[in-house]
Structure formats: C-alpha cells, structure tokens
Amino acid sequence: MLKISDIQVVYNQTPILDQFNLDIEAGEIVGILGPSGCGKSTLLRAIAGFVELAKGEICLNNACLCNCKCFMPPEKRGVGMVFQDNSLFPHLTVAGNIAFGLTKLNKTERQNRVNELLTLIRLEGMGNRYPHELSGGQQQRVALARALAPKPSLILFDEPFSSLDKALSEHLAVEIRQLLKQQKTAAILVTHTQREAELMCDRYAGLEDVYANNWIETAA
Ligand SMILES: Nc1ncnc2c1ncn2[C@@H]1O[C@H](COP(=O)(O)OP(=O)(O)OP(=O)(O)O)[C@@H](O)[C@H]1O
C-alpha cells in the first residue's frame, strides 16, 4: 500500500535518509524507533509532503506521491497526521476540530461522521467542549479522530504520547491500535519508547535496522 523506494533527503548538503526503503501493507501498523536526530521525523515529513526528496520515490495505493519528477502537495496525499502536542485548534470545539478536514461532505454527512468518531473515541456528548476543557489523553483521542475523519489509508504518528505519563501512554497505545484496526487504517508510529511500539504496532525496528529489514514482530 505504501512503498518507499531508495529515498534520500538532504538538509544543507547533508543526507539524512539515504537509500531508505520501506513497504507497508494495507492496515498494517509499523513502529520506528531510534536515537534523537537519526531522521525519524524527516521520514514522516517526506511521506506527508513537508520535505522534498533528493532521490527515490514514495507511492501510496499505487499513486506516486513524490519522486524526482512529481510532487503531490500534502493536502492531496490522503495521509493523516497526529503529533506530539496534538495541535488541536484551540478556538474550535471538539466537533469543529474533528470536522476540520471534511470539506467534501455536506452538513448532514459531516455531522454524522463527527458523531460516529465521537462514539468511536468514547467522547459522545463532548463535541461542544473546547480542547482546554479536556484531559491530555482525551485531547490525543480527538487528534486521532480528526486524523481518521477523512478516512485516510495511512496515519503518521510522531511521538504522540510524549507529553503524557507512562500509564496513560500505554493505555492509549493499545486503544489507538484497536481503533486503527477497526477502521482498517495503516499507521507509522515514531517513538522513543519501545513499550509503546510493542503495544501499538504489528512490527517495529530502529531506523538503522529498517535498512537491514530487521524487524521485531510484536505479540499485539
Ligand atoms: N529543516 C531542517 N534543516 C536542516 N536540518 C534539519 C532540518 N530538520 C531536521 N534537520 C536535521 O536532520 C536530522 C534528523 O532530524 P529529525 O527531526 O528527522 O530526527 P529525529 O530522529 O526525528 O529526532 P528526534 O527523535 O529528536 O525528534 C537532525 O540532525 C536535524 O538536526
């Protein structure tokens, strides 16, 4: 479903990812670990379309997202994102945040999809609250609902639990896995914490081990 072939990203003449390959199947959840600065976020940014490739190609569902000739803009890629600080819009309600990317739906369809997602993340009745009226874990679930809303085939998670405590992070890792599997959505989780990868992913590896195709399958 996602096919990353021989990519290289260059910042200020320094290659960060070089001859990097990764294939992900539909609905598969993959974890990437590794020391600070090794290029994990750069990989997600390249998939999302926030950095250009110096070499190689990224394809999603047989469509080319980018190579040396083409560059599909981020909003056209159909890739969802959940970040560390959840980046919810503070001036929009929970429902408004979830509905943000649903511009192609009419009002009724949009409302139905928002209600469906509020049920999925178990925040029914909280659609009118603002992000600051939610706990950190609830905010991260809303960020996930916002990413899931347009039904992307892939969601990128960049250290989504790093502002939460260990117990809540591990609880959310399991819960988010279940939600992704229910929605048949593939995901890449970037994290520093092996336990989160074990709980949320089907397989994981350090970025260096991805080059050698040396993955650890989880029991999740
Ligand atoms: N816009 C940029 N311009 C120049 N160098 C950059 C840029 N973004 C990242 N880098 C450098 O690229 C390298 C990889 O950064 P990246 O953010 O991908 O690492 P990471 O593995 O995600 O790190 P962390 O775990 O600390 O988030 C680092 O050395 C970083 O300083």
In CATH, the homologous superfamily goes by the name P-loop containing nucleotide triphosphate hydrolases
CATH topology annotation: Rossmann fold
Percent range for helical residues?
25-40%
Corresponding CATH architecture = 3-Layer(aba) Sandwich
Distinct ligand kinds: adenosine-5'-triphosphate
The end-to-end distance, rounded to whole angstroms, is 21 Å
Largest sheet: 6 strands, mixed
**How many β-strand runs?**
10
Task: Please write the string of helix (H) and strand (E) elements.
Answer: EEEHEEEHHHEHEHEHE
* Total helical segments: 7
What's the mean pLDDT score? 92
Low-confidence residue ranges: none
Shape: globular
Strand % is: 25-35%
| CATH level-1 class | Alpha Beta
Structural class: alpha/beta
Radius of gyration over C-alpha positions, nearest whole angstrom: 17 Å
* Tally of domains: 1
Strand order of the largest sheet: 6-7-8-3-9-10
Task: Write a structural description.
It contains 7 helices and 10 strands. It is of the alpha/beta class. The chain has a single domain, classed as Rossmann fold, CATH 3.40.50. The strands form 2 sheets. It has a 6-stranded mixed beta sheet with strand order 6-7-8-3-9-10, sandwiched between helices. Strand 4 and strand 5 (63-66) form a beta hairpin. It is globular and about 50 Å long. The mean pLDDT is 92. The structure holds adenosine-5'-triphosphate. The site of adenosine-5'-triphosphate (ATP) has 11 residues, from helix 1. Keywords: ATP-binding, Cell membrane, Hydrolase, Ion transport, Iron, Iron transport, Membrane, Nucleotide-binding, Transport. Residues 2-220 form the ABC transporter domain. One of its GO terms (molecular function) is ATP binding. InterPro entries: AAA+_ATPase (IPR003593), ABC_SmlMolc_Importer (IPR050093), ABC_transporter-like_ATP-bd (IPR003439), ABC_transporter-like_CS (IPR017871), ABC_transpr_FbpC (IPR015853), P-loop_NTPase (IPR027417).
